Structure formats: C-alpha cells, structure tokens
Amino acid sequence: MCAKNAMDEFEALLKESFEIDTPEEGTVVKGKVIAVEAGQAIIDVGYKMEGRVDLKEFANPGEQPNINVGDTVEVYLDRVENARGEAVISREKARREEAWDRLEKAYASEQRVEGAIFGRVKGGFTVDLGGAVAFLPGSQVDVRPVRDAGPLMGMKQPFQILKMDRRRGNIVVSRRAILEESRAEQRAEVIGNLTEGQVVDGVVKNITEYGAFVDLGGVDGLLHVTDMAWRRVNHPSEILAIGETIKVQVIKINKETHRISLGMKQLQSDPWDAVEKAYPINSVHKGRVTNITDYGAFVELEAGVEGLVHVSEMSWTKKNVHPGKIVSTSQEVDVMVLEIDSAKRRVSLGLKQTQRNPWEVFAENHPVNSTIEGEVKNITEFGLFVGLDNDIDGMVHLSDLSWDKRGEEAIQSYRKGDVVQAVVSEVDIEKERISLSIKALSDDSFTDAVDGVKRGSIITVAVTAIEDGGIEVEYNGAKSFIRRSDLSRDRGDQRPERFQVGDKIDVRVTNIDPKTRKLGLSIKAREIAEEKEAVEQYGSSDSGASLGDILGAALKGEK
C-alpha cells in the first residue's frame, strides 16, 4: 500500500510538472537577484534557471546602476540554456520590449513621452525613451537652430513621437513640437492680455531689412521700418540695436495668426499736423536731399516731413538730365514750397524757383535790338543755336542769317564753335525762347534800293547781262530779271539780243517781293500802260481814228 501511495505521489508530481508552462524563449520573465559579482548580476529566473546580466544594463544614460541582491527585476529570455548551462537573459532587451509597448500606446493617443538626449549622430541626436532609442532630427531640437546642444544632453524632458516602426526598430521624436505647443499657449495668454493701442515695453530680438522683431514677453511683434519714425529710415539699425528695450504701441493684433504689428512713431507727435502752418505756399526753406530717383529728388524739411522736387522743377535750363547730376544725397539745398496735400502727406517743392528765371534776367540785360555775342552751340536744318548767359540758348533762323543769300546757302558759312554777333529780335519768357538775327547787324540794301518805288512805277534800269530767256538788269544795286515775254508788246521785238549790256531802259514795276528780295519788271507792261494812257487822252479806235493817228498825235503833243 505504501508502495502504491508513493507511486501515486510521484505521478501527481510528474503531472504537475508537465502542467507548469516552461517559459518561452523571446519573452520577458521575472527574476530575483541572488548575487552581484564581477560587474554582473546573477539572476534566478525560476525553473531552476539562472543567468547573468552586465550591471550597466541596469543604469540609465549618464547614471550609476542601482541594483541589489534580493531585487526583483524583469529580464528578456533569449535562450533557456547556453554552453555553460545558464540561461541567456538581457535586462536591456526587457526594458526595450516594455518601452515599445508603452511608446506605442503613447503614439496612438498622441501623448508626450519622457526621454533624455544621450548621443550625437549624423543629422541629429539619439534619445533614450526609457529603454527604447529614438532619433531626434537636428531640425526638431528647437524652434530656432541650436548652436550648442551641450546643456540639453542627459536632461530628462518631454518629446513628441512623430513616427515609429516596431518591426524596423525606428522611432523619430521631436522636442520642437513640445516647445511650439507651449509657446503657442504662452502666446495665446500674452496676446489675450494685449489690446490695440496699448503701450508696452519690448526687447529688440532681431533686425531685418524691413523692420525689427520685438519680444513682448513670450510673444514677438513686428515693428515695421515705416512705423519706427516719422522721418525716412533707410535701415532699422540706424535707430535700433539688438537687446535694446524700447516702448512700442500695439497697432494691430490678428487673433487668428497671432501676428502683432507695433509702432514707435505713434508715440510721438505727427509733424504733419503743423506742416501747412510751418511751410506756407511760395515760402523758401533749407532742406537735405535724402533720396534721388529717376523722376526727382526727395528733400527733408524736418524730421518726418519730406517733399518731392520733380525733375521738371529742378533747373531752368537742364531739361533732360538725371536728377543725380543736379543734386547729390545729403546735400543741403534751398527749395520753394509749391503745393501741400496734407491728406496724402505730400509736399511739392521747387529748386529752380529759388533762382531767378534766366530768360527774365536776359530780357533785362539784353533788350530787343541790342547786340549780343555767343558761341555757335548747334547747327540744325532750320538755323543756328547760340550760347548765351546762364546756360540758355538763342536761335538764329535761316531767314535771319543774310539779306542777300538764301538761308540754306548762308548757313554753310558757319561751324560749331564759331563766335558770332547777333541782334536780339524777340524774347519770349513764357515759352523760354530767344530769337536772334545776324542779318540785322547790317542794313537791308534791297529796302534802301527800292525806297519810294511802288507797284506801277516807271523806273530806269541798266542792262547787266543778256541771256536766252531774257535780260538781267540793275536798279540802285538791286538786280532783277526781265523775261523774254516781257521785253516788248510786239512778239517780233521780244528778242534779248536787241539789247546790249549798259543800255538804259524804262520799265514798269509789276511786283515788289521783300521775301525773295526781287522786283518784278516789264517793258511790255510799260508799253501797254502808255498805249492805254494815250487812248484815254486822245480818243479811241471806236471814234474812227486809227492807232497810228492817236500815237502820232500823242507824239506830236509831246513835242
């Protein structure tokens, strides 16, 4: 009976041992530290199995291991037995499995996880997330580029998991996302306490070409360059420095984008409020050239008040010159106020108005009919341009070059650079035009020659040349030409060869043309006029008397 009982007990124990699950390789099991020696912890994982784990696997990055005999720990069972009959176990792999379970839950619920940066790798850093190693890209460390990550190493802080793949063992985290979130909360709180028009203190954080970013205590506002001062500011660095504390006014708050616009000039009085009183129309003031463009120059009258001198108001004489050739930046100039538009904050200024109109000065110094001397500046198809005082020109038209020659012929005698004399014939100040005459320097021989002569007059001329088409004659030095058809009333006598050079003949004046300076002369017209006069005096052909009788009687009466 005893033997039977012993057998039953053995079977029960055997059955019990089979019912107990042997731990599977590749799982996490609990064990007890039974010894610490030679830098290792000996752990009893049960089932009559013991294994060894390096003490460093029990330490967090940068910390000393904290493990003592009797501690219960979880380890990862790699193999049940190795060549020495020991279990192959790992605390690090156990922590990793535990961490992955925890991190996957956090990733799914978009929760933050705690970790510590412990190493630097290409493109970023490694982060210990309590057993699992994650990658922190350089761009995700902070909201701004980090030059020195030393202070961040080993410090426990929150991270956001951006991506994870357990099969590949990849985890990507971000510190920047946490900072931006907390910064957004802080911005919202600060912005909530700000109101438009409020005056606050801020610290200049950054300076750009277009303005400066000012820290208002956790939130940045933009102070645009045009809102720094009433005067023109070429670059913000002229009046601001990084780190400087300044007073600014909140101009506008965009609740959606959290953008804040700031102003400094709004805290100062607007100089434009007194512009119309300080700068009456036609008053002259000193100013400083601040900017030069293709269309004119900007002149600062006082801080915050600038006016434009349009290119057309810069010089009386320099019409097609770039403003930069008349004035230079920072130059002090006298300007006249021409127009003020306070609504548009514009002042129109004149530079030339502060100097006398050179055409007025010329008219005073050189009245009409006075003689001037100047250099030929240009020769055109319609006349000469002569340089006069104060950079102005006068023009001698082709018709005013010579009494005797045609203008096209007379202008051939002049060259650029020649110094000539001329008579002032007209000054048009409004049109800025001066007319000169060279021929007026001498008398008009034609006018003198025909003085007293009228159309229809009978004058005596001398033959100077015989030509096929007629004869050339001269009267008091003025030459004219009598065509063949005007040589006689009778066709048979319309022969130039019947005349000789030096002959004196009576002719009738048919035309006087001052422009061409020619007399129209005709022997035929004289003969017809004489015949008409004789008929009127002695009868007509209708009375029965012949023409011969009439002319004979007329000739007889002359005797």
TrEMBL record:
Parts forming coiled coils: none
Keywords: Repeat, Ribonucleoprotein, Ribosomal protein, RNA-binding
GO function terms (MF aspect): mRNA binding; structural constituent of ribosome
GO biological process: translation
GO CC field: cytosolic small ribosomal subunit
Keyword Ribonucleoprotein attributed: yes
Residue ranges annotated for the S1 motif domain, each copy included: 26-92, 110-176, 197-265, 282-352, 369-439, 456-524
InterPro entries in the cross-refs: NA-bd_OB-fold, Ribos_protein_bS1-like, Ribosomal_bS1, Ribosomal_protein_S1-like, S1_domain
PROSITE patterns: S1
CDD domains named in the record: S1_RPS1_repeat_ec1_hs1, S1_RPS1_repeat_ec2_hs2, S1_RPS1_repeat_ec3
Functional summary from the UniProt entry: Binds mRNA; thus facilitating recognition of the initiation point. It is needed to translate mRNA with a short Shine-Dalgarno (SD) purine-rich sequence.
Family, similarity comment: Belongs to the bacterial ribosomal protein bS1 family.
Protein name: 30S ribosomal protein S1
Originating species: Fuscovulum blasticum DSM 2131
